[in-house]
TrEMBL record, chain A:
GO molecular function: metalloendopeptidase inhibitor activity
Gene3D superfamilies listed in its UniProt record: 3.10.450.10
Family: Belongs to the protease inhibitor I47 (latexin) family.
Taxonomic source organism: Thalassarche chlororhynchos
A Pfam family per the record: LXN
Protein's gene: Lxn
Superkingdom of this protein's organism: Eukaryota
Keywords attached to this entry: Protease inhibitor, Repeat
Presence of keyword Isomerase: no
Keyword Repeat among UniProt keywords: yes
Gene Ontology cellular component list: extracellular space
Protein's recorded name: LXN protein
Domain Cystatin LXN-type span(s) in chain numbering: 1-54, 74-177
From TrEMBL, chain B:
One annotated Gene Ontology cellular component of this protein: extracellular space
Pfam families (UniProt xref): Peptidase_M14 (PF00246), Propep_M14 (PF02244)
UniProt protein name: Carboxypeptidase A1
Gene Ontology BP term (one): proteolysis
Enzyme class: hydrolase
């Protein structure tokens, strides 16, 4: 508890590679939730002890596959109602997961717990430069309120330059009720 | 009356809007007058919806012919589950019967399976799944539990001994209206489908509608909220049916309400941080049940009271049942912890049901050995 500033948490965690359960790396982090203005994202500082696995091969395979598509990629409901994700869509889903992490971070307080629930829709946006761009419509599930928030996010990715969320906005709960 | 399907975000991005018929001409005129270009994506939304409905009815899967050929490793429709129940009863008339305990808001029957080796009004265990409709692994697990009881009631010593003394009641689809809605309209629907006057929003959270600090902190009085408690306790027929059943039965000794996701085993209270008088015992049972669950596939569960483990919640099921005197009141939150969340892949149904069953047996055995 830091007077006039906020609440700081010191964390020790283990990161586990979901694609390789035996691959883990230790991590320490400090998270500061600001007092007062709930519209500021918490401050996060972290240190990763060791190295993350090299993913160049998988990155390049995915990159080249998308780059060589004749028509822009379009997909919906990932996973579907039964939890299925086709193998070709798995990287699209992982990308959304990473990108949603940014959106979640920007919108988190000490009283929220967000998870990516589903990709409702994803559309590739062709670019003239080397980046891949995807326009996602995702559903975020917030555990405490149990609400589902539709959210739009524009995601840029490149094997060497990583992930960027260039634009995101919460969407209205439209006429699905 | 404009219904935005893609809200305005910033310059250069399209906006999608559904326009009711009377607003069509005025809107077109307005856009043209302001030099805003538009294109029509769907001429007639209603036609599309109607078409989808007929498609879904037509591609309706063939109903199962026996509980031995039933596919437990996939998610089923309400009709398929109700057919399954009838098949189970027909195949095992001496062990299982089907009771209708009430009707949902949309007038769907609320069915409970009763597993009994005889006696009259024996002490009983109650298990419910699917009270929150989007938690699909729970209804699917309920179906598996029903079959498991039939398969094991003689050869499994623990289960056999439970059924020697107690009856088991199992409500598989506790919220059928919500369940159908998750299959036809919105996979993420949680609540019931009731309409209460004064709001355009539909549905009440059936796990905030019980008479246990009803309306207190930990529920919402906003009808549009996912945790809306409803206009009054037991306003929801799905909840009232269980309340009436429990009170009329009068001899239920263990009550387990099953949800997903988060991998937790919880006991009361949710509405207050005051521990229940039986806290120590419930905590011990939980520890043992979780150990049994984990022993199968290594799935990690946390356990504790609702308020200390998950969040404050008022009007909750097991807070009410505990206060009714049902000491062994528990809630499960099944797999996973968020990777798939509500959309748990079907291939995890059976492993989830199997491990959960081990925990349920711990609870049922303890109840059998500590009848009160």
């Amino acid at each position: 508890d830091i007077d006039d500033v906020g609440h700081k948490y010191h964390l020790e965690l283990v990161l586990e590679d979901i694609l390789d359960k035996d691959s883990t790396v230790n991590c320490t982090a400090e998270v500061l939730y600001h007092l007062g203005n709930k519209n500021i994202a918490p401050d996060v500082q972290f240190t990763i002890e060791g190295e993350l696995k090299n993913t160049d091969e998988a990155d390049n395979t995915f990159y080249n596959r998308i780059k060589s598509l004749e028509k822009e990629l379009v997909a919906e409901n990932i996973p579907d109602s039964h939890g299925n994700v086709s193998p070709e869509m798995e990287p699209i889903r992982l990308l959304a997961w990473v990108a949603s992490g940014y959106v979640i971070w920007q919108n988190s307080t000490e009283n929220t717990k967000f998870q990516l629930a589903q990709i409702k829709h994803v559309k590739q946006v062709k670019r003239s430069d080397e980046y891949l761009e995807f326009d996602y419509m995702i559903l975020l599930h917030e555990m405490v309120s149990q609400e589902i928030f539709p959210w739009q996010m524009t995601v840029l990715w490149h094997p060497q330059h990583g992930v960027q969320v260039t634009q995101d906005s919460r969407q209205p709960k439209h006429a699905l009720e | 009356q404009l219904d935005f399907w893609l809200a305005p975000r910033s310059l250069g991005y399209p906006v999608d809007v559904r326009v009711p018929f009377p607003s069509l001409q005025p809107l077109k005129a307005h856009l043209e007058a302001n030099g805003i270009s538009y294109s029509i994506m769907i001429e007639d939304v209603q036609a599309l919806v109607d078409h989808e409905q007929t498609e879904m009815l037509r591609s309706h899967r063939r109903l199962p012919l026996s509980t031995n050929t039933f596919d437990y490793a996939t998610y089923h429709s309400l009709d398929e589950i109700y057919t399954f129940m009838d098949l189970l009863v027909a195949e095992n008339p001496n062990l299982v019967s089907k009771l209708e305990i009430g009707r949902s808001t949309e007038n769907r029957p609320l069915y409970v399976l009763k597993f009994s080796k005889g006696g009259t009004n024996r002490p009983a265990v109650w298990i419910d799944t699917g009270i929150h409709s989007r938690e699909w692994v729970t209804q699917a697990s309920g179906v598996w539990f029903a079959k498991k009881i039939i398969l094991d009631h003689e050869n499994d010593k623990g289960l056999a001994s439970i059924l020697d003394k107690m009856d088991i009641f199992l409500e598989i689809v506790t919220n059928p209206d919500g369940f159908v809605f998750t299959q036809t309209q919105n996979r993420m629907w949680r609540k019931t489908r009731s309409r209460h006057s004064g709001s355009a929003c539909i549905g009440v959270d059936p796990n905030r509608n019980w008479d246990a600090n009803f309306g207190g902190p930990g529920a919402s009085r906003n009808p549009c909220s996912e945790t809306y408690h409803g206009p009054y306790a037991n306003s929801e027929p799905e909840v009232k049916a269980i309340v009436d059943f429990v009170k009329n039965h009068g001899n239920i000794k263990a009550f387990v309400s099953i949800h997903s996701y988060s991998q937790l085993l919880l006991y009361p209270y949710g509405y207050t941080s005051t521990p229940v008088p039986d806290q120590k015992e419930l905590h011990q049972i939980s520890k043992k049940a979780v150990a049994a669950l984990s022993s199968l596939y290594g799935t990690n569960y946390k356990y504790g009271s609702i308020i200390t483990t998950i969040y404050q919640a008022s009007g909750g099921t097991i807070d009410w049942t505990y206060n009714q005197g049902i000491k062994y009141s528990f809630t499960f939150e099944l797999r996973d912890t968020g990777r798939y969340g509500f959309l748990l892949p079907a291939k995890q149904i059976i492993p989830t049901a199997q491990e959960t069953w081990l925990a349920l047996k711990v609870i049922m055995l303890h109840a059998r050995d500590h009848l009160y």
